[in-house]
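> example.struct
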């Protein structure tokens, strides 16, 4: 049996297979961005492919420095990084539809 690496969403705290999650990385240069490959260097935080989780993690109205993503990455996104994360969240499905964890 193949071992499936699981990661925990910083918003809903559910563990899912790593490839079902989206990684956000704080790169060694301090920049914060979505890591589509899941392999970028730096401290990473994982989120479900769900707008709900993203909004919970990056906040909508609260100051960026108080969001869960900031505490997970131990760094506060700049305004432009935060806007980019909001933009990314906007194209995600409202809820994660890969709940079963089975991806083809
Ligand atoms: Zn989640």
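> example.seq
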């Amino acid at each position: 049996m193949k071992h499936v690496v699981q990661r925990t969403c910083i918003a809903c705290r559910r563990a899912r297979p790593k490839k079902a999650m989206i990684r956000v990385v704080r790169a060694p240069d301090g920049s914060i961005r979505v890591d589509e490959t899941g392999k970028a260097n730096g401290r990473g935080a994982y989120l479900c492919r769900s707008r709900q989780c993203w909004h919970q993690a990056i906040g909508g109205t609260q100051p960026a420095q108080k969001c869960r993503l900031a505490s997970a990455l131990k760094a506060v996104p700049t305004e432009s990084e935060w806007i980019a994360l909001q933009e990314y969240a906007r194209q995600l499905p409202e809820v994660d539809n890969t709940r079963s964890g089975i991806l083809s």
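> remarks
The longest strand covers residues 21-26.
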